[in-house]
Structures
1.
Amino acid sequence: MDFSGTKLICLVGRRLVTLRRDCDPSIPWPGYWDLPGGGRDGDESPEACVLRETAEEVGLTLTPNDLIWRRFYPRPVAAWFFAARLPESAAADLSLGDEGQALALVDPAEWVLREDVIPHFRMRVAFAMEELHDL
């Protein structure tokens, strides 16, 4: 299946890993809170893409076994969303990469209500949290 990129709903303990995008007006949603992830390189798989982007953006080295949930969204851009649940101790491994202004751990229920979150990601995170509740 063709896709442009990936995003990760990464829970560290009970908190969501989120990044504030750069304020560059040439990028979509400048200054908004985002999720780790990004564009596909070459013909990499969705899993390889999200694992690479997560390591680059927030310093977490995950494995395919860490990915406990996945959904494909064809619009507005064809993208795979994944979820991972890590222990609270993983917070010590977080580090902001070369992109973004800030890295934060926040309550997912509060994150989805924020006005400065990429709008279509709010519903995707809320949906994932509902499904993850049973896992």
Note: The domain at 5-132 is CATH 3.90.79.10 (Nucleoside Triphosphate Pyrophosphohydrolase).
2.
Amino acid sequence: MVFDSPDFDLALAAADGTNDMYAESAATFLATHLLTRGRHAPPPGPEHAAVRASVAVMRERFAEPLTLADIAAEVHLSVYHFIRVFRAGIGETPHRFLTRLRIEQAQRLLSTTDLTVGQIADRCGFASPGALSSAFLRQVGVRPSVYRNI
């Protein structure tokens, strides 16, 4: 630990507790130390490649009825390991990530086309217009028809 170093002991001995400059220096040192600790992350391994590959699969095939098993098989991982690795790498579950991609595409289509909500649901990988509407409401806060009129 850093506090066991001789420099730290000398600095403590030199400070009489009344020196504001010492306190400021100590705070700066501590902040710098804490900010640089995580800089040396381990090099990307095969799990990181699997996450990148799974994101590419989701982006390319979001309109298809993808399952976790399909995506995990594409990147050669078990479903449970895939979920853990993906969540660690991306910060959200594969299902949420895929739903977010689909909703973002639905938003683009609602803003730029005159397609019906049913047609947009088909193009974005939702099972029905109702499934799109429910997911859209959860994520965006309004129904697709309201979003289109905004």
Note: Residues 94-112 form the longest helix (19 residues).
